[in-house]
């Protein structure tokens, strides 16, 4: 049975984003993202007394020309994320509410409409390269 708290947002066969709803409750550690995505998103649901052993990750020696992925986490409020095609038409939209997360695969132009007062955490890859090299804004 599919997990209804994880949604794969697609246009045709292209993965635009993955949404993890606040009700996600699978036990243990589960990685939501495909293994080849350059940002891995894992959900932990652990019991008291469990432990992730002390560890350090190896550097990835060569990565080039990779999409910039983002994670949005709604702390409070409500927001709609829109994904656009090359002609600025909306391909897909998804509404996020308190406790929801979205992993943006970075393949398409996107916007965020804040539907009510919203506090949202955004995580994306660095290093920050300055405003001119960070993004292009559609008007």
Question: Features of this protein?
Answer:
mainly beta, 10 strands, five-stranded antiparallel beta sheet, 139 residues, Jelly Rolls, three-stranded antiparallel beta sheet, 3% helix, 42% strand
Domain count, please report it.
Answer: 1
Overall strand count: 10
Give start-end ranges of low-pLDDT stretches. none
Pattern of helices and strands: EEEEEEEEEEH
Helix count equals 1
CATH topology grouping = Jelly Rolls
Average pLDDT works out at: 90
Report the β-strand fraction as a percent range: 35-45%
**Which class best fits the helix and strand makeup?**
mainly beta
CA-atom Rg in angstroms: 16 Å
Helix percent reads under 10%
CATH architecture: Sandwich
Q: How would you describe this protein?
A:
The chain is mainly beta and 139 residues long. It has one helix at residues 131-134, and strands spanning 6-11, 14-20, 28-31, 42-45, 70-76, 78-84, 90-97, 101-104, 110-114, 119-124. Helix content is 3%, strand content 42%. The strands form three sheets. The protein has a five-stranded antiparallel β-sheet, with no helix packed on it. The chain has a three-stranded antiparallel β-sheet with strand order 7-6-9, with no helix packed on it. Strands 3-4 form a two-stranded antiparallel sheet. The chain has one domain (6-46, 63-127): Jelly Rolls (Sandwich). Strand 1 and strand 2 form a beta hairpin. The protein starts with 5 loop residues before the first strand and ends in a 5-residue tail after the last helix. The model has no long low-confidence stretch (mean pLDDT 90).
């Amino acid at each position: 049975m599919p997990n209804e708290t994880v949604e794969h947002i697609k246009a045709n066969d292209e993965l635009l984003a993955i949404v993890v709803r606040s009700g996600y409750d699978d036990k243990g550690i589960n990685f939501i993202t495909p293994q080849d995505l350059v940002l891995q998103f894992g959900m932990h649901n652990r019991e008291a007394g469990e432990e992730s052993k002390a560890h350090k990750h190896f550097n990835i020696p060569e990565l080039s020309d990779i999409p910039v992925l983002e994670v949005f986490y709604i702390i409070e409020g409500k927001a709609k994320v829109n994904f656009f095609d090359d002609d600025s038409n909306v391909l897909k939209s998804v509404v996020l509410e308190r406790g929801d997360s979205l992993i943006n695969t970075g393949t398409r132009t996107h916007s965020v409409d804040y539907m009510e007062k919203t506090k949202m955490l955004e995580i994306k890859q660095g290093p920050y390269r300055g405003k001119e090299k960070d993004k292009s804004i559609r008007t």
